[in-house]
Design brief:
By secondary structure, the chain is α+β, with helices and mostly antiparallel strands. The protein is built from two helices and ten strands; from the N terminus they run E-E-E-H-E-E-E-E-H-E-E-E. It folds into two domains: about 55 residues, K homology (KH) domain (GMP Synthetase, Chain A, domain 3), CATH 3.30.300; about 100 residues, 2-Layer Sandwich (GMP Synthetase, Chain A, domain 3).
């Protein structure tokens, strides 16, 4: 298959008191294509000043990876089917709670893509189903992943598909 590399780099900063737990958790994420992203725990998990709300947290990256993977498959299946897609926007949401084993985990991710297309509802639903089945990331996680598509035809309000 293939291998994917991500570098995660953290360094203590002047004035940090690591052993006392008073240190910044901000870090840098580097990807093989050259992208560099500021990383941090969520301020809801680790409060400021030990986190940075401007950094991307692991929970956000998890949700974004599911959303991105679904979108890429959706677009590919639409292209193969000859379905024109004008725009794709997903407001994905992950819920962190205790799982069945009593551990804190992301237990559910809802993908809520809004699709701008002239295709009918049944066609879009079929494309979402195929995308969900093919998504490598969705196939790799144990939390519930649901797709709650929205659709918007040009000049019309979004509605549920």
């Amino acid at each position: 298959m293939s291998t994917h590399i991500a570098e995660v780099i953290w360094r203590a900063r002047p004035g940090d008191e690591f052993l006392a737990g008073r240190y910044s958790r901000s870090h840098e994420l580097r990807f093989d294509g050259g992208a560099v992203v500021a990383g941090s725990p969520s301020p809801s998990v680790v409060p400021a000043p030990w986190s940075d709300a401007a950094g991307v947290d692991p929970e956000e990256m998890f949700v974004a990876s599911l959303s991105s993977c679904h979108m890429l498959w959706f677009l590919d299946f639409a292209r193969r089917a000859g379905v024109e897609i004008h725009a794709y926007h997903d407001l994905a949401e992950g819920v962190m709670a205790k799982n069945d084993e009593g551990r804190i985990a992301i237990t559910r991710v809802a993908l809520r893509p809004t699709i701008d297309s002239d295709a009918d509802r049944a066609t879009l639903e079929d494309l979402h189903h195929k995308a969900h089945e093919a998504c490598f990331i969705a196939n790799s996680v144990k939390c519930e992943v649901v797709v709650e598509p929205q659709t918007r035809s040009e000049g019309k309000e979004a509605d549920h598909v």
